[in-house]
Amino acid sequence: MTKKSTLYIVQGAIIAALYAVLTIGQNLLLPGSASMAVQFRVAEVLTILALYSPAAIPGLTIGCVIANISSVMSGLGFYDMIFGSLASLIAALLMYALRDVRLKDIPILAIFMPALANGLFVGFEIDYFFIGSMSFNFVDFLIQGSFVALGEVAVLVVLGIPLFMVIEKTGINKKLFKGI
Questions:
Q1: Interval 133-143 mean pLDDT
Q2: Res. 73 pLDDT band, cuts 50 70 90
Q3: Among 71, 80, 90, 137, which is least packed by CB within 10 angstroms?
Q4: Rounded CA separation 123/117 (Å)
Q5: Smallest Cα–Cα separation from 35: which of 47, 17, 22, 45?
Q6: Which of 23-32, 33-42, 45-54 is predicted with the least confidence, judged by mean pLDDT?
Q7: Phi/psi of residue 165, each to 5°?
């Protein structure tokens, strides 16, 4: 195994662990605040790391799987583990792909990919499996998807953009993610 692949695995594992611990801890301290339709999942701020390293893609996905295992145990069902984790994977892939598309040096389009992916996937999950009892209703999907996306936008605007600016201003990304 090369130094580069070891660094990739370590970075992904750290991101996964941080995501899982932040989400599970938040749900323990403020039940439902990180796992309901309208949520402010603080761990989603870590999606910003997908702008800097491909290691964040599996890290965020695995972290979401681990965090959503706790939601399975709290009664949200197996579906949340699948759809929420798939949304995280797609959001991270899109963020990494769009990282260089910038408006005034800020990758706004990339930063909002978690809101789009979670709004679509988790909005569908909530409508189909929890509200619609295995049936799809477009209006309910739009409502639930909008609630999920709104929570994501709140995290990304309140925490994500400031984190991005701190990372850019300090250049910490060049120290943490060099070599990948």
A1: 91
A2: low
A3: 137
A4: 9
A5: 22
A6: 33-42
A7: -65, -40
Cα–Cα distance, 51 to 45 (Å, whole number): 12
Rg (CA), the chain: 16
Name, in order, each residue with C-beta under 8 angstroms of 57's C-beta and a sequence gap of 6 or more.
12, 50, 89, 92, 93, 96
Report the pLDDT value the prediction gives residue 131, as an integer from 0 to 100. Answer: 85
Contact of 91 with 146, CB cutoff 8 Å: no
Residue 103, beta-bridge partner list: 106
Nearest to 130 by CA among 113, 145, 115: 145
Q: Tell me the pLDDT tens digit for each residue of 113-137.
A: 999 999 999 999 989 988 877 889 9
Q: Is 115 helix (H, G, I), strand (E, B) or coil?
A: helix
> How far apart are the C-alpha atoms of 115 and 87, rounded to whole Å?
9
**Do the beta carbons of residue 23 and residue 41 sit within 8 Å?**
yes
Tokens of 53: 């390293």
**Could you tell me the residue range of the domain that residue 151 belongs to?**
3-176
Total number of domains in the chain:
1
What the block records as the tokens of 2 is 């090369």
Q: How far is CA 158 from CA 37, 40, 45, in A?
A: 19, 10, 9
What residues pair up with 106 in beta bridges, in sequence order? Answer: 103
